[in-house]
Amino acid sequence: QVQLVESGGGLVQPGGSLRLSCAASGLRFSFSSYVLSWFRQAPGKERELFAHIGTAPDTADYVDSVKGRATISRDNTRNTMYLQVNNLKPEDTALYYCHAVHLLNSRISYWGQGTQVTVSS
Fold it and tell me: What digits encode the pLDDT tens for the residues 24-52?
């Protein structure tokens, strides 16, 4: 059974930082062959792509609202993806999901269950 398990969410004050993790298990193919993404869904809004990282080095990209504040990374030896976000703002409050899709077959994709991030004083 494939599982993507997010962790690291919680309550953070504005200006603070956090690091989310997404650990994968049970994947049919090597973790390194998946394009990985973080999505987020704020209350009353649609889920949006926040950041993604490809299978090749230096292939990270971010939504404009977080460029310069976020870093997505992956450790293929640990089957884990990370998201570091600094200078958090109240508008970053959302449920954060990780997603994995196989590089060569988009029908092979998985979602995590989400981790809540709340930015508030």
Answer: 999 999 999 999 999 999 999 999 999 99
